[in-house]
Amino acid sequence: RKEVEQDPGPFNVPEGATVAFNCTYSNSASQSFFWYRQDCRKEPKLLMSVYSSGNEDGRFTAQLNRASQYISLLIRDSKLSDSATYLCVVRGYSGGGADGLTFGKGTHLIIQP
Amino acid sequence: GAGVSQSPSNKVTEKGKDVELRCDPISGHTALYWYRQSLGQGLEFLIYFQGNSAPDKSGLPSDRFSAERTGGSVSTLTIQRTQQEDSAVYLCASSPRWRQGMAGNTIYFGEGSWLTVV
Description:
The structure holds 2 protein chains of 2 kinds.
Chain A: E1 4-6, E2 11-14, E3 19-25, E4 30-38, E5 45-50, E6 55-57, E7 60-65, E8 70-75, E9 84-92, E10 101-103, E11 107-112
Parallel strand pairs in A: 2-11
Antiparallel strand pairs in A: 1-3, 3-8, 4-5, 4-9, 6-7, 7-8, 9-10, 9-11
Chain B: E1 5-7, E2 10-13, E3 19-24, E4 31-37, E5 44-50, E6 65-69, E7 75-79, E8 88-95, E9 108-109, E10 113-117
Parallel strand pairs in B: 2-10
Antiparallel strand pairs in B: 1-3, 3-7, 4-5, 4-8, 6-7, 8-9, 8-10
């Protein structure tokens, strides 16, 4: 099983709709979780951290399910500008490489007018 | 500056030449990372520096790749005898030191150096 898995998509969603995607992780000792957004030919940028109790930032809601080892991202009232690739990032004190950071390969979202 | 700064933004080089890519992290960030991303692909970890500790080089794809970080700040990634498969964007990131149990500590990326080997 890959350390961090995401459905690559693409998810084609009409403007104004609600879309949700998940990310599963294999290391139960993982400590911190994040969603990044990456636009075409740009660097990844932090969208939001994911807290145990779940958290919301405007139209975006992130949830963590430790028992099932997944995090989710929900986007309400989607905008054309939400079109991007969404990267799931998991951080744990694994003692392994990359300072315990593992990036998913991303879910590609296309919002259609 | 306020963010991670990388140079050059774009580099076209001939196969077999050496290239150097520079990264200036966010001031005060002790951790510095290099990643590589080919078009349409995910991020590939290359190397990680934390303060004065020995770097984690576990992601370097071959001995043609090396990196150093001088004075705990600026880092240079060097690719010797470049090959066409080295063409990618090379992303540098930095973060404060992360400690177990700390929540919300994450990394910030520069805009990348786009390398094309012809």
